[in-house]
Amino acid sequence: MPLWLWMRFVVRRWIRNPLRVAFLVLSIGVATTLWTAVTRVAFSSVESFEKSIGVADKRYQIRVSARGGRLDRRRLRDALAALPKLTDVVFLAREAGLVARKRGTRVSEDKKPFTIVGVGGMSAENVVSVPSDRVAISESGMRNLGVTVGDSVMVWRGSEARTLTVEQLPTDSNSRFSESAVVSLGHFSEENSFDEALIAFGQKELSNQEFEDFQSWLRSATRSELVLAEPLTAPLERAQEVTAAYRFNIVIVAAMSLCVCALLVYQATQLSFIALSRELSILRIVGVSAVEIGSALILEAAIMSVLGALIGLVVGYPATLYLTKSLLETAYQLYGVEFAELSRSESVLRGVITVFTIALVSCASATIAAVRAVCGGIASGARRERVHVRPLSSGLQYGFFVIVSTEVALILLMLTLYPSVVLTYAALVSLLVWVATAGVSGLVAVPAALSSRRAGVPRMLAFSLLKRSGGSYVFGVIASSVAIALMTSLACMVGSFRGTLRDWSRVRLQGDLFLSSAIAGEGNENLVSERVIGSVRAHPDVLRVIAYREARDVVNSRDVIIAGTDIRAQCARGVYIFMSGSCRDVESTTLPYVVISESAARKCALERGQRISLQGKNLLVAAVLREFSTEQPLFITDEAVFMELYGQQGAKTLTIDLSDTVNVEHARKSLMEALTEPVILRDHRELLRLVEEIFNRTFTITESVRWVVFILAVGGLVAGYIQHIWERRLDLRVLDVQGMHRSEHFCMFCLEACCLVAIPIVAGGGAGLILGYTLTEYLNPLVFGWRLQFDSGASFGIEVATFALLSVASMVGGAMILLQVITKQVGLRDE
Amino acid sequence: MDICRISRADRDEGSGSSHSDAWAEKKKGFMKESKQLVLKAEGLTKWFGEGAQRVAAVHEVSMDLYKGEFVALTGPSGCGKSTLLNMLGLVESPTAGVLCLDGVNIATACAAQLRESRRSRVGYVFQSFNLLSTLTALENVMVPLILTGGDRAASEVRAKELLKELGLSHRLHSLPATLSGGESQRVAIARAVAHHPRYILADEPTGNLDSAAGASVLELLQRIASDGTAVLMATHSDGALRYCSRSLQMRDGELVDC
User: What is the 3-state secondary structure (H, E, C) of A600-637?
Assistant: First the structure.
């Protein structure tokens, strides 16, 4: 087709039907926004995370930690002095070894103490150079402390205190911890101890033998205090495993979002080309070849897709920045890791890639639609009546549905018998395929089932339209069904997490008051000293005090947490939810025993009745309990056993039961006044609120993703439906001329919209529930080691909201078009 | 409303009067009234545009349509036939003039009244058939019957009868896309007459058909008219005139021959 003819043909059509162009461009825009958001947020976060934890940094490091959380700086430095390839030793005081506060102010008990990174050893280049009169504090640290650059703050550890001037700690890939401050170690005596040290070597990697030699040498040089020395590559490898799994999930989500985008674009393009059928036939009748027409359509789609992609990018980019920021903030709040800044220059390249990808997808969709549009007989589209009739083959749809349903059932059966990650993902993919086929089958079955010989005109028109024009809605229904399935499964997962953790925390967090160390205990640890425990026990309002102590160890080659508490007392208070065994089993055990978490049972391959060895002592696994405070394996021993194994050390928290007649707030104030050391004393409700706040933060991103999917579902289906109403303007006008009431028109839209919305909601909702159950029941235990109580409650609310919103949006769109048809009196001649 | 009343008064007087020049006219009017006046237009005018752009598509058109008449409306393209048909069909409101349907001026009626009149008293046949593409031939014919409150089963019986009468009993469940032009137009005619309208407006019903199909459609309309439904047909075809009982010619928005 000559360019001038194409220009006139296309451009005039655009000018005369701006709404049609708007539909197509907006559909592509929505698709681009989603794709931009999903891919950029996901990949940026992973990159930032990897950069922050040092996966990208190839320097070879060894993490050294000490029993009891203390590492003697001078002894370690002296031992390391002889090593030639050593570049840095960075001492880390985690969990509030050092505290900074503004001069003249009281240390607020609400302030979370933060990590001090002591710069010392051979070199300071690993972190940052800090002059001796300064303290470099991270931005978040300054924010939390309420100080700014130039302020004077007091930094102390134990009894040693210095007044230093604040400067900004640059956030880079080596600034590993949030709320961190960097000081010169020269301020503190050599005897001052630290929690951990990072030893960095000026070479890429030590061989296994070299590392073994180094570890033995280090153990002997630092005597008994060294508990763990491992190459940082080990945690990095674990982190890489996590990020690789995360990446894999993101790639799947991105691929799915791209597929859904492609479906949306194809649906919009196809409907646009269907409306052109008559013109295309006429062009072919006057001698324009199918190839020329096809090229013109693809060119048109390419222009629109670039326009749509640019619009999507403009909308999507700020949304992406917001989501990324939110994700990183959530990660910071949860894990305390301050992520590296994202490079903005990369986003330009990503933008170009996004536009290119979306344009490519749109052109591919347009090519298929164009081929279908021009492949019929020359006169096939010359009559208007033929344009909207696109029935679906019921036999084919039902047959395909049965095959896919059988496959899904088999995979789910295998998953039940042999749970594995691979089968879980296979179930996920097959369920999404099932959703698509269920949606299309619903499009065939529902109108057939609901049409009645006694129906009025609106019902007759609505169901005959769905029955005979089903082909026009196929891709919209598939896209929406998949989106709703994802949304429902996310809602189920979030609901299950929330429900389980809420129930668990209500059982576990019994007790009137909870006490933990505000800043530093006697030995600079974040622990509650024995003196404080004694004072609390002696208080007249206190009925019972249960101390919780913690240490770290290795069981079956896994880092584990060893806790020490009064298990029998806790059993009597009913704070444990047992999976295997019971309080009676625990109480009747005469041997030294340990109670383990579900995660410990899975990860360390242990079960009730087995024996383990801790520090050379044999302990019986008396019971397995549900534990959601940590995904790390947890072994709870009786307090006396713990003391025997790990020595006398302060408690991490105290649970305080008050006498029945005592007012909690009154007792809290009284206790605060009685205790001389700074402590955090929270009541039951406050702690629950805190826990729920942490849960809510955890699910911020999931909520964001759910909203993105929601927009996808609403945007895709409503745009498709409204576009189809728009193409049926002449039919609406004929009905209006025949005297059909607006209310009857509206009733017709209502039925069509509700039916179109109900199909993906039922199909997607059903599959989403199974998907959510599969992920909760199988993937969670495999990945985290714990099983959640499945809760589908939230998903129904989402589905009802989706149904209402989609229906209302569709009906409003239809009503607006009807109003235009009636008031502007659309011509009754085809031209 | 006055015109409609005068018309009624004249009709009453005409039956008893025996002198004056007006008598002949009144008698002529009486003769027509005896055929039952269905539609009366007096000074119908339709303007489009504003200010200098304002154009009279139809200007001061007066005409009557009687029960059982098959009237042709001819004239060159753009002379205002379709606009006049739209006004007579209550699809467009006239800018000025009076339109009486069964003795009531409905030119100034509200939208709901017009819709009610369209639904029950008017049948339409379009050049391009305008069948609803997702309904079968049978369902298309049933639409006006159900819209006028007909029972679904009774509507189906009536629609089947009509289609059988028009030789389409084998096409009851065919979609419009599979019907030929002549078949489509016959379905459209069946749809137009199904609910027993007072009059049918046909806008170039043979325009898209070959001569044989066109002749068949015209015969059908003639038969409908002879059964008592008034038919007004806009056409370009001279051949169509011989099927009509009278013809009206339009030029530049005005009736020039009545």
Answer: HHHHCCCCCCCEEEECCEEEEEEEEECCCCCCCCEEEE
Judge whether residue B149 has pLDDT over 70: yes
Model confidence at A489, pLDDT cuts 50, 70, 90, reads confident
Closest CA–CA distance from residue A468 to any residue of chain B (Å) = 6
pLDDT at A152 over 80: no
Which residue is associated with the tokens 């009747």?
A588
Bigger pLDDT: B17 vs A455:
A455
Q: Give the pair of three-digit tokens for residue A150.
A: 């130039």
Residue A731 and residue A469 in contact, taking contact as beta carbons nearer than 8 Å: no
Are A734 and B132 in contact (CB < 8 Å)?
yes
Contact B139 A825 (CB under 8 A): no
Nearest CA to B46 among B6, B75, B89, B101?
A: B89
State how far residue A318 is from chain B, nearest Cα, in angstroms.
Answer: 44
Closest CB to A386 among B116, B143, B177:
B177
One-letter amino acid at A668 equals: R
Query: What does A353-418 look like in DSSP terms, one character per residue?
Result: HHHHHHHHHHHHHHHHHHHHHHHS-TTTTSSHHHHS-----HHHHHHHHHHHHHHHHHHHHHHHHS
**Which of left, alpha, beta for A204 (phi over 0: left; psi -120 to 50: alpha)?**
alpha
CB A626 within 8 A of CB A663: no
φ and ψ of B71, to 5 deg: -105, 135
The SS3 of residue A260 is: helix
What secondary structure letter does DSSP report for B51?
G
For residue A672, give both structure tokens: 């605060």
Taking an 8 Å cut-off on Cβ atoms, the answer to whether A740 and B147 are in contact is yes
State the alpha helices, DSSP H only, in A81-167. Answer: 139-145
Strand partners, B243: none
Which residue reads 């410990």 in tokens? A600
Chain B touched by A819 (CB under 8 Å): no
Is the pLDDT score of A754 beyond 90? Answer: no
Write down the ipTM of this complex: 0.80
Tell me which chain A residues have a C-beta less than 8 angstroms from the C-beta of B144.
738-739
Residue A400: which pLDDT band, with cuts at 50, 70 and 90?
confident
State whether residue B250 is helix, strand or coil. strand
For residue B45, the distance in angstroms to the closest alpha carbon of chain A comes to: 18
Tell me if A258 sits within 8 A of A357, measured CB to CB.
yes
Identify all chain A residues contacting B130, using CB atoms and an 8 Å cutoff.
Answer: 730, 734, 828
Rounded to whole angstroms, the Cα distance separating A761 from B125 reads 42
CB contacts < 8 Å between A and B, how many?
A: 91
Q: What is the pLDDT of residue A530?
A: 83
Pair type for strands A542-555 and A653-658? antiparallel
Chain A residues lying within 8 Å of B177, measured CB to CB: 383, 385-386, 389
- For B35-45, the pLDDT digits (tens) are 788 899 999 99
Element (H, E) at A458: helix A457-468
Question: How far is residue A724's CA from residue A745's CA, in Å, rounded to a whole number?
Answer: 15
Tokens matching residue A518? 């505000």
Say yes or no for a CB contact (<8 Å) between A738 and B143: yes
| Closest C-alpha among A256, A261, A476 to residue A364 | A261
CB B55 within 8 A of CB B47: yes
A731 touches chain B (CB under 8 A): yes
Chain A nearest-CA distance from B86, in A, is 10
Q: Could you tell me if B128 and A384 are in contact, meaning their C-beta atoms sit under 8 angstroms apart? A: yes
All residues of chain B having their beta carbon less than 8 Å from the beta carbon of residue A741 are 115
Please give the single-letter amino acid code of residue B75. G
Q: Summarize pLDDT for A777-823 with one digit per residue, the tens.
A: 887 787 777 778 888 766 677 677 777 877 787 778 788 888 877 77
Q: Report the run of H or E that residue A522 belongs to, with start and end.
A: none
C-alpha A218/C-alpha A225 separation (Å) is: 11
